[in-house]
From TrEMBL:
PANTHER family: FATTY ACID SYNTHASE (PTHR45527:SF1), NONRIBOSOMAL PEPTIDE SYNTHETASE (PTHR45527). One of its GO terms (biological process) is amino acid activation for nonribosomal peptide biosynthetic process. GO terms for molecular function: phosphopantetheine binding. Coiled coil: none annotated. One of its GO terms (cellular component) is cytosol. Keywords: Phosphopantetheine, Phosphoprotein. The keyword Phosphoprotein applies. The keyword Cytoplasm does not apply. It comes from Streptomyces sp. ID05-A0111. This is Non-ribosomal peptide synthase. Residues 25-196 form the AMP-dependent synthetase/ligase domain. SUPFAM superfamilies: Acetyl-CoA synthetase-like (SSF56801). Pfam families: AMP-binding (PF00501).
Length: 241
């Protein structure tokens, strides 16, 4: 997938307001300590690197440490880590190993898969911390939607990040009403140019955006979502399930 640099810049500007700012404010304005727990082969790893750009302290965890839930929890406690960024599945393992006991990281970032109710509830109900879920396919620069436990009592993928449009459409590309499932189409600054040397697949998945300016495109995600009355989006599954 070929993505423009402007998508990463847009994500950083969004996170300054929606992710970094609230976390720093909750910590009294001090520099935070971030555990880099994601392989550099995964685009999600950029999220920790943007904390570094913002002047925070990033602890790069090696392969053995980040794969060992018990050891990672102990490391976070010893080094007073403020932010961890993991998949919901791994968050469940970390919670089972005591992540939310003793020293509690003020922010747990989630991404890469649907968040179970048990993980969301644990982060929602534990004092001194909150969870923030970031959704995004490879075809849009890393993050597309975001929402946290302070915004919702139940798991949500939240709202579009800065410079991003999210359309829930039926099979005829008509917007569906709130509460009705629809396929997610996304457009905006972070949209990829397409698949490298695969024009046919690019044309199939990146389609004309009837809601944008002339020539605008949107990406057909294949994900089924539902918009709540408050504007937050809930992930329901795949259209081909």
């Amino acid at each position: 997938v070929v993505t423009p640099y402007r998508g990463l810049t847009n994500m950083q500007i969004n996170h300054q307001k929606e992710v970094f700012g609230p976390a720093v404010a909750a910590a009294g304005g001090r520099r935070l300590r971030i555990a880099h727990t994601v392989s550099f082969a995964f685009d999600m790893s950029w999220e920790e690197l943007l904390w570094l750009v913002e002047g925070h302290e990033v602890h790069v965890c090696d392969e053995d440490l980040r794969r060992d839930a018990e050891a990672l929890v102990a490391y976070c406690a010893e080094h007073r880590v403020d932010v961890v960024n993991v998949t919901p599945t791994y968050a469940r393992l970390l919670i089972e190993q005591g992540l939310l006991e003793g020293h509690v990281p003020p922010l747990v970032l989630l991404g890469g898969e649907a968040v179970p109710e048990t993980v969301w509830a644990a982060l929602r109900d534990t004092g001194g911390t909150y969870g923030y879920n970031l959704y995004g396919p490879t075809e849009y620069t890393i993050n597309t939607l975001g929402g946290g436990t302070p915004d919702s009592a139940t798991p949500t993928v939240g709202r579009p990040i800065r410079g991003t449009r999210a359309h829930l459409l039926d099979a005829w590309l008509r917007p569906v009403p709130d509460g009705v499932p629809g396929e997610l189409y996304i457009a905006g600054i972070g949209l990829a140019r397409g698949y490298l040397d695969r024009p046919g697949l690019t044309a199939e998945r990146f389609v004309a955006d009837p809601f944008g300016a002339p020539g605008a495109r949107m990406y057909r995600t294949g994900d089924l979502l539902r918009r709540r009355p408050d504007g937050n989006l809930d992930y329901l599954g795949r259209t081909d399930d």
